[in-house]
Amino acid sequence: MNRKVCVLTSVHQPFDVRIFHKQAKTLSKAGYDVTLIAQHKQNETMDGVKIIGLPKHHSRFDRMTRTSFGIFRLALKQKADIYHFHDPELIPIGIILKLLGKKVIYDVHEDLPKQILSKYYIPSWQRKPLAAFFKLAELSASKVFDYIITATDSIQEKFNKPGKVIVIRNFPILDIKKNIDTSHKGLSNNLKLIYAGGLTEVRGIAQIVLALEYVNNNVELILLGEFAPKEYVNKVRRLKGFGKVRYLGKVPFEEVPKYYSSADIGIVCFLPERNHIKAMPNKLFEYMAAGLPVIASDFPLWKKIIDDAGCGICIDPTDPRKIAEAILFLSNNPQLRKQMGENGRKAVLEKYNWERESKKLLTVYEKLS
To answer: What are residue 191's DSSP bridge partners?
Structure first.
């Protein structure tokens, strides 16, 4: 086959789970010649994927100008058959590549207009007009691309491009999760909660830590990830419940499963922002794959997934006392906790896994090859 694929991202790290560990490695294993251009300290080849590194720019303006220009320059040099880009700010590059006769895929991770409405660094008075502008720009530009890949059904619904839009969800990779030890789940008296991912205000981290104040049991919360903005960590550290937190910062993707193995409950209490209501966070399915019962926000989509699988409890994420009640309930019911974990793992093995989703990715590439 040896068809050449060039993957582009200006925002994400080179070893992003969706971009590298799921999509790029899947394509490489299927016989495609895959090059990934991203901000990285060096050029290297990992798991069959050639990574071309660009200097890391810390300001958003530099990233959207200098980094994007660098990506465009290097992308042209690759002379790839298919270009697959992952960031809205690269839409102009995608259009140019298409005008040059290349096949182009736009991979949409988030609902951009809704995401803009929750951005802490954008002045509140600018958010609505910016969201409206980018909604129009994204929909107009997307008409020229060969395929649109979306991470959720709700994002797919906004693109009117019959036969050229497909949902490829962020479900867990079973090969990585199969070695997680689930034998002790539900049996420990020293309860460990875990949250893995971005630590931001809209993801309800403060509410989770506040909930720990109302839990007298021997409970510890393991936090994996980076705080954003960095000042937010100071707000969370001042909360009384932070005394029950073990903050480990950002952990390499390959090491996360060992922390899941040591935990008893996975927690994801995103606040009800517009971009969250119909999202399908990867961490929810990661917890399920690891045999962890989940405590999650009571959004209708999440509640249906969790109730259908019988794998956890949904609560009002804005109310720390409700979160605390769920923690105490699971703490006092170890056998139920164990059964919920087993139910969630079974649902992932049968339905919510990357191995099933990867077949859709390969189908898209077969159509374009």
So the answer is: 219
Which residues is 296 bridged to in the sheet? 268, 314
Write down all domains in the chain, each with its CATH number in brackets: 4-171+354-368 (3.40.50.2000), 175-350 (3.40.50.2000)
The pLDDT value given to residue 130: 85
Which residue numbers in the chain have pLDDT < 50? none
Whole-prediction pTM value? Answer: 0.89
Cα dist. 134→107, 220, 294, 321 in Å?
16, 42, 35, 38
Give residues with Cβ within 8 angstroms of 79, minimum separation 6: 4
Could you count the other beta carbons within 10 Å of the beta carbon of residue 250?
12
Phi-psi region of 247 (alpha: psi -120 to 50; beta: other; left: phi over 0): beta
pLDDT of residue 186: 52
State residue 127's pLDDT score.
87
Helix (H) or strand (E) holding 312: strand 312-315
